């Protein structure tokens, strides 16, 4: 079901002691009347701690990655069952850093998505174009291909487990945000693809988040757009005060 969501992707930041401090800064601070979903994605080593310390709060825990296999000889990898066992409900798949630095292909991302959906995680599936593609006017094509190859193998009913995050690569960690209009334009395009591939129900019920240099001073304007259902926040999720201000902007 479409919801308003603010998710914090901590990336490779925060050891256990820093995780404790950051979570203490969030716990009990979200206004009681706030109906939006709040998710944090600490590194793997702190997922269990995060789940235990957030148990009686309205903050859920996400993993930043998942392996597409059930178990076995995959040194250094983490399975769906392991994540389930420590209370993880959400998984980020296809972040541009995984695509670019760790060379995760569309096929791998499709397999990861299938595995995560099979295990009933909520998947935050990331898409987004690089600057060269935006400059060449190819951004819609890039996002369409990413969705077609990594996500659209799912059935309409499986799409209930999917949240899409549009993160233009040129806006990630750069301080340069897509304008609210650019975000809205892409989100509306993604929704039109969902309607075309599936049906209007899927299009209407899928949450689409924006990510890329969202800060307390620009969140409200971006979140104010009709097809923007919240944000996937990197840098600003590492400071409790900033993350809370962004949650309040939704
Ligand atoms: O997953 C989050 C995005 O990569 C955005 O990161 P950022 O807010 O630091 O630009």
Summarize the structure.
The chain is α/β, with parallel strands linked by helices and 250 residues long.
Please write out the topology.
Blueprint: E1 5-9, H1 16-26, E2 37-41, H2 47-54, E3 59-63, H3 80-85, E4 90-93, H4 96-100, H5 106-118, E5 122-127, H6 131-135, H7 139-150, E6 162-166, H8 180-197, H9 200-205, E7 208-210, H10 219-223, E8 230-233, H11 240-249
Parallel strand pairs: 1-2, 1-8, 2-3, 3-4, 4-5, 5-6, 6-7
Helix pairs in contact: 1-2, 1-11
The structure holds glyceraldehyde-3-phosphate.
Give a verbal description of the structure.
This protein has 250 residues and is α/β, with parallel strands linked by helices. It has one domain (5-249): Aldolase class I (TIM Barrel), CATH 3.20.20. It contains eleven helices and eight strands. The protein has helices spanning 16-26, 47-54, 80-85, 96-100, 106-118, 131-135, 139-150, 180-197, 200-205, 219-223, 240-249; strands at residues 5-9, 37-41, 59-63, 90-93, 122-127, 162-166, 208-210, 230-233. It has an eight-stranded parallel β-sheet. α2 (47-54) links the parallel β2 and β3 (59-63). α1 (16-26) packs parallel to α2 (47-54) and α1 crosses α11 (240-249). The two termini are 17 Å apart. The model has no long low-confidence stretch (mean pLDDT 96). The site of glyceraldehyde-3-phosphate (G3H) has 14 residues, from β8. It catalyses: D-glyceraldehyde 3-phosphate = dihydroxyacetone phosphate. Pathway: Carbohydrate biosynthesis; gluconeogenesis; Carbohydrate degradation; glycolysis; D-glyceraldehyde 3-phosphate from glycerone phosphate: step 1/1. This is Triosephosphate isomerase. InterPro entries: Aldolase_TIM, TIM_sf, TrioseP_Isoase_bac/euk, Triosephosphate_isomerase, Triosephosphate_isomerase_AS. The active site is at residues 95, 167.
């Amino acid at each position: 079901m479409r919801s308003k969501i603010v998710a914090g992707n901590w990336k490779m930041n925060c050891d256990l002691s820093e995780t404790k401090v950051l979570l203490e800064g969030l716990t009990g601070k979200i206004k009681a009347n706030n109906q939006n979903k709040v998710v944090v994605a600490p590194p793997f080593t702190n997922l269990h701690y995060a789940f235990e310390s957030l148990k009686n709060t309205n903050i859920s825990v996400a993993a930043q990655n998942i392996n597409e296999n059930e178990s076995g000889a995959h040194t250094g990898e983490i399975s769906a069952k392991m994540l389930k066992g420590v209370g993880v409900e959400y998984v980020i798949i296809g972040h541009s850093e995984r695509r670019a630095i760790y060379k995760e292909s569309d096929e791998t991302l499709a397999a990861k998505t299938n595995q995560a959906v099979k295990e009933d995680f909520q998947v935050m599936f990331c898409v987004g174009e690089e600057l060269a593609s935006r400059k060449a006017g190819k951004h819609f094509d890039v996002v369409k291909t990413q969705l077609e190859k990594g996500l659209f193998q799912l059935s309409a009913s499986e799409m209930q487990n999917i949240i899409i995050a549009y993160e233009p690569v040129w806006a990630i960690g750069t301080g340069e945000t897509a304008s609210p209009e650019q975000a809205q334009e892409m989100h509306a395009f993604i929704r039109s693809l969902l309607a075309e591939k599936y049906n209007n129900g899927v299009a209407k019920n899928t949450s689409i988040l924006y990510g890329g240099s969202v800060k307390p001073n620009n969140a409200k304007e971006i979140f104010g757009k009709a097809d923007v259902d919240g944000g996937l926040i990197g840098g600003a999720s590492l400071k409790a005060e900033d993350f809370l201000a962004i949650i309040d902007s939704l």
